[in-house]
Amino acid sequence: MKNAFAAGVLVVGLAFPLSAWATSGLYSLSYGAKSGGMAGATLVSGDDALNQIINPANLSLIDSRFDVNIMYLRSNLHFENSGTYSPIVPGVGGTTFTNDRDNERGFDSEIFPFTDNNFLVPSLGFVVRFKDSGWLGPINTRDLGFGFHLTGLGGDASRFFLNHPLLGPDERFRANLVLMNAGPAVSYRVNKYLSVGVQGQILAGRFQFDQPVAFDPGTFALGSSPGLAGFGLTNFGQFFRGIGITEGVGDGKLTDVDFTFGGGARVGVTVTPHDRVSLSATYQSERHLTFTGKARFDFTRQLQEAGFIIAANPAGNPFVASIQAALGCPGGCTPAQVNAGFMALGFNPALGFKTQYNAEVPFTLPQQVDAGIAVRVLPQLVAEADFGWIQWSATDPFETFRVDLRNGTNPNINLIIGSPDVDFFIKTRWRDQYVYRLGAAWAAFQAVTLRGGYSYASNPIRESGALVTFPAYGFHTLTAGGTAKLGEKWDVSAAFERAFERTVKVGASQVDSFHSNSKESHEQFSVYLQLGRRF
User: Is-above-0.85 flag for pTM?
Assistant: First the structure.
């Protein structure tokens, strides 16, 4: 099963490269045009094969059919910040920096238009109902529904080239997260009032991350050497803080990450106490993944800055003055004298300050509860209201973004850290998210149904933990769509979603100083096209 699903992921991945996005948290608002036209408010009233993705209990209420959907999503991002930074390495940049930029539209040229903010996302599903009634003994097989789905579940993708005060202009900030879900489902209609269902899930994911990373030297630079004792210090964190570096910065990349797999389950129940009223509730379990790959870091500019501080002491730091005196160059040191000082601390300048690790990123999608009510207001009109709760606050990387780094390849970096292994983390501290959906479907003509909807998803990201590469904010969204029957068996549906701009203003960032006093904006729209066939 795993090998078959991996082959499916490969096929979809080749057909739809970089199919990742962010709508409500990391999830899509809808997974098909019928649902999309009602802003996702189809937990109760959904009548196609894609509905099993959100409520497997409805399988026993849906006729045998197959549905396939393609969604085009365009995401528009903007980032602004400015600040001062001193000291700075000569030739790298100035003491002030400003950014006022949109998300990049492609890779490194215009030959890749569908990248980074343009996505094609597939979904497919089928439902099988039996006409026989006796071959399972006391269970009436006509009350059973079986299904299978494969869908792009959600994700995130962004890419900026920004002016960084230490690393220079056009520093790349990029993240790409792809989440895909597949699995079988079964539903049983217990009686005319009650239907229950369960869905088994295989989750596939891939994650890549490329942006400057920052750390507190007092937390991560815990290595030591005999050379530090002459300054009354016990670790390199004290050394870097002593010369005025309170935030270590390096260019980081998490790459060479293959698709990894996890599992989960969703259970649902639909109750129909009245022929015009139905209610549904579902529970989604946690789903666990561990991304593995190579993490590469380049701290060259940071150590160049340390050398510049020691050589010139631009801030008149008494501790730096004592280092200059110990090196025999009070008032100013040459690069050769600074190198000699680094060698006395145990570094080998010839090895530089680039390193590579084997990396693991624990990744858990949280549990989720949804509930809804659908009312047939008129014979031709159904209205539905749904509510969802997603517990982002309880799982990593949403509570803490952690990367476990092992087998560091550069002795200089290992000396600073005190080990070839380190666990790097950022306190992201997402909030739980609440999603409200309202939708209606009107059978305006015998062969045409029109739909409309509105949804609101709260913002799970705390302003202090916002990242330019993860703009997974909630939105106010308006939708419209419709379905046309094409004869006895076929139908085609289309929908349009407009998610209005959400702006997050960051004051003091707990991620790094670069994100402090920044403003991040995100808006998007989606177009769905779905084809279905009844059997």
Answer: yes
